[in-house]
Amino acid sequence: MRVMLAASNAGDLVLDPFFGSGTTGVAARRLRRSYIGIERDPAYAEAARRRIDAVEPLPDQALAIAPTRRSEPRVAFSSVVEAGLARPGERLVDAGRRFSALVRADGALAVGPAVGSIHKIGALVQGLPACNGWTFWHTERGDRLAPIDDLRATMRAAMREAAE
Question: Which of 22, 42, 125, 143 is most buried (most C-beta within 10 Å)?
Fold first, then answer.
């Protein structure tokens, strides 16, 4: 069932060209998928049919998938700047306040002559090949540091609210 959950959505069609006793059909029915099973042995086909007929689809609550970060809508840092959550001219810092970068009006960051994305500049200042800028960079608001990922979460919440 885990593979079917990961690879399909409710209502999708699943094909099993070697249906056997119908395990794929059982999982598909439980998970509210349609299915096509191909089995040449009539005894196995009949056993699969009886097995699947006895299965009840899972209730909606059991099928709800917890959202993952990857399933969330993408938000560009430039959108965060356009929304006024991060301001051009503001300085972002890392959690240890060792590095800082200037927010530009186009959503890029600048450190000296280097200009780039939150990820590229985060990697550059650390001397690393890659960096998740959303968790590396922080805003300083008063005495409080907050990752810019909090700003992205605010944008996503506004997007969900607008969609309702």
Answer: 22
